[in-house]
Write a sequence for this structure.
């Protein structure tokens, strides 16, 4: 983890409420897909955690949804402005156990961290399937970007306005070797139930620090107490308490 | 360094800056960021006799100029702290550390303190009395002078190191609690712990924090903390460690002018992991700005608070 002052290169909407921000600065603290940065915003006491969507040299891409004060403020920032971040937080996904045919499963703003992950897996020669879930067509983003990487990208919308009607679990490929999931907890639980192969899931929590100091984000797992910010946000399927809950 | 030196209950500190309990873990996370030997000392995570997971999530909420927490004293228990955290700490921190202790009965406080008192690395015991007393319907030890004195006496009876009683601000008259602790033999007092508060999420119409209430800390509480430190320092003859919202070298000086011998920094470490390093580096320059030769001079009449 390091404190980095990034410079905003671009900050533009992808949908009505989801923005993509491109930043320039030291990306060396980021060592794995699935890690996050914690952003300091003027006048707000706590930092805001946002996943790393892509890293390319000294360019860092974030994708965020405007849901409250902080993300609203972020959406109004202009190219050229500086952004204070704690960078390279969390464990990130472990790519070593992906196997030949991993599937990446994302819902809503759980999709962004899967992009950097897909890029790394394609680089490693894996056949990557990506299942993207959105509520409706207007919320869709990054389908084409995943295709351009060479992924088998599939989309489900809850209202059926685009792709397959239903949840991401309706578009899962047959017999993947491993899954990587990020999204709202009900989606994670549905994926956990639907797939038998090993997997890794990324969780969210309200955070005091984001680097393991405050115990504000601790959850219980089968392998002990874990801080979502430091020992997570990625947890292995095998360690979740859900395994013990039938 | 001479200029910033202070003496806290017989131990010299290079400076009065002390990360507060619960915001610095057992030092590990920060040792990777800067040399934590620059600190005066630090107060480690509130330790209890038995391991605790703490409260359900969410435990954190934002507040104007501050935050609420309801961590619920998550810690590995005193035995693991002694067998694992302290040996690890000896590799990254080479000064006496302040051991912060919590408990839910007088016996538990005494036993945890007794075990930590025997550890060579421990310089002071800071006894957090903001916890609910399980034998008194969950009322906090820190809200009743009789209970606060009883904890102080029980801890003093089984320890040899300086005992600093850490006071709760959630009381009508903090001075009476401070006096009760001092009269019962406390070597010092520290204040303030967090102020009880809550937030409601407009979208869900439910409290943000699963525990409903949480403790407020950060710059929002600074004036309240300063006032309490001022009142207590005037009323007791034992040293006072001041905290609550301290985020800058200026805040440290203000706390000391109010009567604090040393100053703890809490929530600031969470939003700026380099906060204490920055404060320590800034101190000499800010002292110059206000014509303060040594911090010691603030104690011996250099302040208007004499
Ligand atoms: C590890 C991690 C990665 C994330 N990655 C992304 C991402 O890539 N894109 C994206 O759009 N969102 C992401 N989020 C969620 C994002 O952090 C929240 O949407 C954001 O903090 C909301 O801030 P706000 O001020 O707009 O909302 P407010 O509701 O005004 O925020 C109030 C407080 O609650 C916290 N909070 C609110 N919602 C969440 C939440 N879902 N998770 C954690 N804290 C929350 C805020 O940080 C703040 O402290 C991530 C969260 C975590 C924990
Ligand atoms: C996340 C968090 C955890 C805390 N845990 C403890 C604790 O275990 N024991 C304790 O005595 N105080 C604890 N405190 C209180 C602080 O040590 C300090 O008294 C309080 O936060 C006021 O200082 P501040 O405004 O600088 O944060 C905690 C505070 C925070 C923010
Ligand atoms: S948010 Fe502080 S430990 Fe995870």
């Amino acid at each position: 983890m390091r404190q980095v002052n990034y410079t905003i290169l671009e900050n533009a909407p992808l949908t009505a409420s989801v923005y993509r921000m491109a930043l320039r600065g030291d990306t060396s603290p980021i060592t794995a897909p699935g890690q996050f940065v914690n952003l300091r915003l003027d006048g707000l006491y706590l930092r805001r955690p946002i996943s790393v969507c892509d890293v390319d040299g000294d360019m860092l891409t974030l994708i965020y949804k405007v849901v409250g004060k902080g993300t609203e403020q972020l959406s109004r920032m202009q190219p050229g402005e500086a952004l204070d971040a704690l960078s390279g937080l969390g464990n990130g996904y472990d790519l070593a156990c992906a196997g030949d045919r991993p599937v990446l499963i994302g819902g809503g703003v759980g999709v962004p961290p899967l992009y950097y992950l897909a890029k790394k897996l394609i680089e490693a020669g894996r056949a990557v399937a990506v299942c993207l879930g959105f509520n409706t067509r207007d919320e869709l983003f990054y389908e084409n970007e995943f295709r351009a990487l060479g992924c088998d990208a599939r989309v489900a919308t809850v209202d059926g306005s685009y792709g397959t009607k239903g949840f991401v679990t309706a578009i899962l490929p047959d017999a993947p070797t491993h899954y990587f999931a990020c999204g709202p907890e009900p989606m994670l639980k549905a994926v956990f139930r639907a797939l038998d192969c090993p997997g890794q899931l990324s969780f969210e929590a309200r955070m005091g620090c984001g680097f393991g100091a405050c115990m504000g984000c601790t959850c219980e797992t089968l392998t002990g107490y874990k801080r979502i910010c430091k020992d997570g946000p990625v947890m292995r399927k095998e360690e979740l308490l859900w395994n013990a809950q039938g | 360094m001479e200029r910033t030196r202070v003496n806290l209950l017989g131990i010299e500190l290079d400076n009065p800056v002390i990360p507060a309990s619960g915001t610095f873990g057992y030092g590990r996370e920060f040792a990777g960021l800067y040399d934590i030997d620059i600190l005066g000392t630090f107060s480690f995570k509130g330790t209890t006799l038995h391991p605790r997971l703490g409260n359900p999530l969410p435990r954190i909420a934002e507040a104007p100029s501050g935050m609420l927490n309801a961590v619920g004293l998550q810690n590995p228990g005193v035995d693991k702290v002694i067998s694992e955290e302290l040996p690890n700490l000896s590799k990254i921190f080479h000064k006496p550390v302040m051991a912060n202790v919590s408990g839910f009965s007088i016996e538990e406080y005494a036993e945890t303190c007794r075990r930590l008192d025997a550890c060579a690395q421990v310089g002071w015991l800071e006894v957090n009395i903001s916890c609910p007393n399980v034998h008194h319907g969950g009322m906090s030890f820190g809200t009743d002078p009789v209970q606060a004195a009883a904890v102080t006496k029980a801890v003093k009876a089984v320890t040899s190191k300086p005992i600093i009683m850490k006071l709760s601000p959630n009381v009508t008259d903090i001075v009476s609690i401070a006096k009760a602790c001092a009269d019962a033999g406390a070597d010092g007092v520290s204040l303030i712990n967090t102020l009880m508060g809550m937030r409601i999420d407009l979208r869900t119409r439910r409290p943000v924090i699963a525990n409903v209430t949480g403790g407020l800390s950060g710059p929002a509480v600074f004036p309240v903390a300063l006032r309490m430190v001022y009142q207590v320092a005037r009323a007791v003859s034992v040293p006072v460690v001041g905290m609550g919202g301290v985020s800058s070298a200026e805040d440290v000086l203000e706390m000391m002018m109010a009567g604090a011998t040393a100053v703890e920094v809490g929530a600031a470490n969470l939003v700026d992991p380099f906060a204490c390093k920055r404060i320590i580096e800034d101190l000499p320059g800010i002292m110059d700005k206000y014509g303060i030769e040594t911090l010691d001079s603030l104690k011996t009449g250099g302040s208007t608070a004499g």
Q: What stands out?
A: Helices of chain A lie at 69-75, 112-123, 143-149, 185-194. Residues 95-204 of chain A form a domain with the Rossmann fold fold (CATH 3.40.50.80). The pocket of FE2/S2 (inorganic) cluster (ligand 3) is lined by residues A 207-210, 212-217, 227, 229-230 (CB under 6 Å).
